[in-house]
Amino acid sequence: KMLTSNRIVLCLVILFSVINPAQLENRSKTASNNDTLQCSGERKSSFLWRINTSPPSYFFGSVHVPYTRVWNYISENVKQAFMRANKIYFELDLTDPYTIHALTTCQLLPRGTNLTQVLPRGIFNRLENHLRWVRGEMDSWLTPDQRVRGLHPDHLFNAITANWVRKRPIWAMLMVYSLTPSDIASRGFPVLDLYLAQLANKYKKGKGAVETVEDQCGPINGLSLGQVVFALNQTLQEQEIFRSGVTSPVYTTEKIVNSYKCGEIDSFSMFSSEYSSTVPLLTPKSGLSKEQEQISEEINQYFKDHLINRRNKRMSSRVIELLLNNRGQSFFFVFGAGHFVGNYSIIHLVRKSGFQVEEVGIDDDLDAWTNSKYPSGYSMSPGRVAGTFHDLSDEEKTKAFLQLLQHQLKVEKERGGNKKSTKVNELWQNLPAPDLYSNESDDVNAVRESVKIWYGLSNAASGLSTFPAYLKFYTLFYIINRAFLLQL
After folding, report:
1. Residue 385, CB half-sphere, CA atoms under 13 Å: how many?
2. Is the pLDDT of residue 487 over 50?
3. Helices (DSSP H) in 245-336: which residue ranges?
4. What tens digit of pLDDT does each residue of 251-285 get?
5. What residues contact 373, with CB distance under 8 A and at least 6 apart?
6. Residue 403 — pLDDT band, cuts 50, 70, 90?
7. What digits encode the pLDDT tens for the residues 348-390?
8. What's the CA gap between 68 and 45, in Å, rounded?
9. What DSSP string describes 173-222?
10. Is 88 helix (H, G, I), strand (E, B) or coil?
11. In the predicted model, what is the mean pLDDT of residues 60-86?
12. How far apart are the C-alpha atoms of 312 and 449, rounded to whole Å?
């Protein structure tokens, strides 16, 4: 039951044919050809699900790693479904300047505050020492291909760690996890979700998001100060052990990429028995005390509730609303693969609303799909209705509307949350974020660069000249510190 900081990061980072395949495969060939695929058997999942709207809509489970690492392993029917859709919806729209700006400001401590004021001196000094060590190692972590494309170790390090003393401790912890050999070796290309957003722009498709930055940042920043300090301390202990060469990281970008390419959908459950049984103790020499175990379990439950269950409810509610109110439109929803796993997944919740949602096999022909392929034994819940809103009778429309309204009211009520029992935690969790509309400061500008590095948006750090023109335009605005792999 112990929660490790590896699992914390997974929660933050798991919980995204007709396209002219030759062109796209050529763009990703450089990075993908060097990958070695190690699957336990045949590829299992396409990460694609079909929704019984007319025309059909789709869910696609993404992973937040550079698209070049996985693109050649994404099945052709996924690419076909993408091209057939009228509208592409993401968790967040990473091509929207406001999104990058908000992601930047949510990482920062209140104006005039820095980590030396909120962290114990010993932990701050260890964090500083670890960053100094990483800087010395960075040159050996870059790949030959990255060097050819113009990446420089000092430039990349400075971009990722820009103004780190002004970041909230939870984001400093995520920054530490982004500074690993496997993660650094992946920098230089857009993450898969962003690449699909670029393609949506290229093919002039409708585009949108089912979440706001506040939906994602709020829960991450919602941990108490004591919990955050505990997690950062455990993270630093773990990294110090890795530096000594005693152990190696269990969850790396390579493992996530390999699981995704093999279609191992169950690997993307942050709370699966597989992860629980293989996660090592953060303090292998002495173990965790009972008090530390309790803190770990509290963090575990907090993230499970706020970053998975509550977000799944909110996202599925918005999906249902879009499907009911857009007759004749085909949607392609791109969410982290972790949102499609488990009893309270988005698939489960959308099915409960009355829609049929069926997994599409890797080799399935989209044109040959029929309702008869729907999993046997499935039955509609009493009082539920299926189909697009305008296909329903007046009575069914009333049921659908009341159902959706009730769900939205429940979500809004849950957003209020419960106040923490102590004044310290209450003050910490309600610290004001920097004003999104205030004059630009050096703090914000510096952290923007790390934000763009996180998602692969920044030309400056990668030295790439092949980015679309509109991304070059965005470099004038908002430059995320790519924490780690993630599926959320």
Report:
1. 21
2. no
3. 253-261, 273-278, 290-303, 310-324
4. 567 888 888 999 988 877 654 433 332 233 333 33
5. 358
6. low
7. 999 999 999 999 999 999 988 654 444 433 333 333 444 445 5
8. 19
9. HHHHHH-SHHHHTTTTS-BHHHHHHHHHHHTT-EEEESS-HHHHHHHHTT
10. strand
11. 94
12. 30
Q: What separation in angstroms does the CA of 129 have from each of 109, 133, 165, 181?
A: 21, 6, 13, 17
- Judge whether 331 and 49 are in contact, CB under 8 Å: no
Amino acid at 216: Q
Report the residue count for the chain: 488
Q: Of 407, 368, 432, nearest to 113 (Cα)? A: 432
* Vertex 120 angle, CA 281 and 220, to 5°: 65
Q: Are 477 and 101 in contact (CB under 8 A)?
A: yes
Distance CA 486, CA 454 (A): 11
Strand partners, 50: 58, 358
Distance (Å, whole) CA 460 – CA 159: 9
| Token pair of 38 as six digits | 């190690």
What does the alpha-carbon distance between residue 110 and residue 77 come to, in Å, rounded to a whole number?
A: 47
Which pLDDT does position 216 carry in this prediction? 87
**Over 50: is that where the pLDDT of 208 sits?**
yes
What is the spatial distance between Cα 424 and Cα 420, in angstroms, rounded to a whole number? 9
* pLDDT of the residue at 454: 54
Separation of CA 89 from chain center: 14
The pLDDT value recorded for residue 52 is 94
**The model's pTM:** 0.71
Query: Is 346:339 a contact under the CB 8 Å cutoff?
Result: yes
Which positions ≥6 away from 394 have C-beta within 8 Å?
Answer: none
What sign has the CA pseudo-torsion 339, 342, 343, 347?
positive
pLDDT band of 205, cuts 50, 70, 90: very high
